[in-house]
Design a protein that fits this description.
It is built from ten helices and nine strands. It is α/β, with parallel strands linked by helices. Helix 1 crosses helix 8. It is globular and about 55 Å long.
């Protein structure tokens, strides 16, 4: 069932996220947009693109994903200053360096903190705030990397596995509250986040997509009121099959 039309504020946590900005552009028409990121005064290019996409106004606020103690107050401040949230897009995260993380515990913990613990730290007060207003949608970006974790990126993949489970449970907990959660599961995304990885010699996985394709698919799912979206959809049956691969064979796969 399609979501009812609303005209609240669109908030992007991760105001420089390539996918996040692309999605926000598709939802921005006639809306107030808030970009939350480190160095909020350095978001001119992103704000200009959103104004061009039809946003009525764009504001920026300071947001440090790793400063979990600040998240609740930031969300309260955004609602107080800019009104009810129509859509909160949670699109921050890091890929990290898998090879380094296998021996550098601090780096492994940094990936886990930003990609899992910090996500919970934002999603929990967001859900509370949207329950109080009785409406709104939270968009969460998981990944097929978390559906069955591979040895090639098990640190990052494990955070996505945890986030996927948390978001799925939160979606069920929000049922009947007037608040909706959309869980996006893209495959390998060719873009800024994976640029260094590809420059190191890694080739994009089959059924790879780019930020614009991800944004198109998520925007369609958002407007239709869907609870989850795989990008592309062909990944869903593929990963059903991958879950059935015996572990001795799975561990021999290079990707």
């Amino acid at each position: 069932m399609a979501l009812p039309p609303t005209t609240g504020t669109i908030v992007l946590f991760g105001g420089r996220s390539e996918i996040g900005v692309a999605l926000t552009r598709r939802l921005a028409q006639g809306r107030t947009v808030v970009l939350a990121a480190r160095r909020p005064d350095d978001l001119g290019a992103e704000a200009s693109r959103l104004i061009e996409a039809g946003a009525s106004q764009v504001h920026t606020v300071a947001f440090d994903a790793d400063d979990t103690a600040s998240h609740g107050a930031l969300i309260d401040s955004v609602i107080s200053r800019f009104g009810p949230i129509e859509a909160a897009i949670v699109a921050f995260g890091i890929l990290g360096d898998q090879v380094r993380a296998e021996t550098d515990v601090e780096h492994a913990l940094q990936i886990a903190h930003t990609d899992y613990l910090a996500q919970i730290s934002v999603l929990t007060p967001l859900a509370t705030a949207l329950r109080a207003q009785g409406s709104g949608t939270i968009v969460v970006f998981s990944s097929v990397a978390g559906i069955r974790v591979r040895k090639a990126n098990y640190v990052y993949g494990s955070t996505k596995a945890g986030l996927d489970g948390f978001a799925s449970g939160l979606a069920d907990a929000l049922h009947g509250s007037g608040v909706h959660l959309l869980l996006a599961r893209p495959g390998f995304v060719v873009g800024a986040m994976t640029k260094d990885l590809m420059e190191s010699g890694v080739t994009p996985a089959p059924l790879s997509v780019d930020a614009e394709q991800v944004a198109d698919a998520v925007a369609r799912a958002y407007r239709r009121g869907r609870g989850e979206v795989w990008i592309p959809w062909a990944l869903r049956p593929l990963f059903v099959g991958m879950r059935l691969i015996p572990r001795p064979i799975w561990r021999r796969l290079s990707r």
